[in-house]
Amino acid sequence: MPKPRHRTLAAPGRRRFLAGLGSLVLAAGLGLQASGVGANLDPPRLREHMQRLYGSQGLAVLEEWFALLDRLAGAELNTQLRDVNDFFNRRVLWVDDIDIWGREDYWATPLETLGQGRGDCEDYSIAKYVTLKQLGVPGARLRMIYVRARIGRSRITQAHMVLGYYATPAAEPLLLDNLVPSITPASQRTDLDPLFSFNSSGLWAGGSTESRADPLARLSRWRNVIDRMQQQGFI
């Protein structure tokens, strides 16, 4: 992961790229359909899981998330994007997976990210994606984007993930990133080279506008996140 360039995010260790197109598993179902995550929540079950896993402190943060959803319901899209981006960037401290979970790569659910108060780039992106879908932003306009991030002026690159908002399938995406506080068009992020992106309906290679996966594409870690979200009350 690239070294954070603002605030107090923990400096990440260098990592190998964790996934490539060859590690993707094509399948006929993803689990985050339009009527899935982002449309149905079970607040009592979410509260029960948060209380059991992270106690009163985690429960307090979950209530802040519920309040965010209430406040942004029906708000203008730009406000939703900005405030969701800020919410997670301010409340979650960047920490490498090995230091949180004792493993090289772990994709956390939003509940786990909020409860821990720590996470890495995938965790920020997943949490923002789920939150925006819950606010009614169409999933077809959101993609989690794996990129190579260049470090400073060197040729060193590291794996990173951001969330992209696409006004249309062929539009230049706006990037929600935990390393940069403002939401910026992709063309302004010359430090990032896209590898592939995915959401609940497909997989795109690089900057392609056509999905490589039909019917749907998914990552094994993504499947695992969905399973845990179902257990916790997101679906």
The gross shape turns out to be globular
Largest sheet geometry? 6 strands, antiparallel
- Straight-line N-to-C gap: 30 Å
Question: Structural class of the secondary structure composition?
Answer: alpha+beta
What does this structure look like?
There is one protein chain. With 235 residues, the chain is of the alpha+beta class. Helix content is 36%, strand content 18%. The longest helix is centred in the first third of the chain and has 30 residues.
Characteristics of this structure?
alpha+beta, two-stranded antiparallel ribbon, 36% helix
Brief summary:
This protein has 235 residues and is an alpha+beta fold. Helix content is 36%, strand content 18%. The strands form three sheets. It has a six-stranded antiparallel beta sheet with strand order 7-6-5-4-8-9. A two-stranded antiparallel sheet has the order 1-10. A two-stranded parallel ribbon has the order 2-3.
Summarize the SSE layout with pairings:
Elements: E1 25-27, H1 43-72, H2 77-91, E2 93-94, H3 97-101, H4 110-116, E3 118-119, H5 121-134, E4 142-150, E5 157-165, E6 174-176, E7 184-185, E8 192-198, E9 203-205, E10 216-218, H6 220-232
Parallel strand pairs: 2-3
Antiparallel strand pairs: 1-10, 4-5, 4-8, 5-6, 6-7, 8-9
InterPro entries: Papain-like_cys_pep_sf, TAT_signal, Transglutaminase-like_Cys_pept
Organism: Halomonas kalidii
Protein name: Transglutaminase-like cysteine peptidase
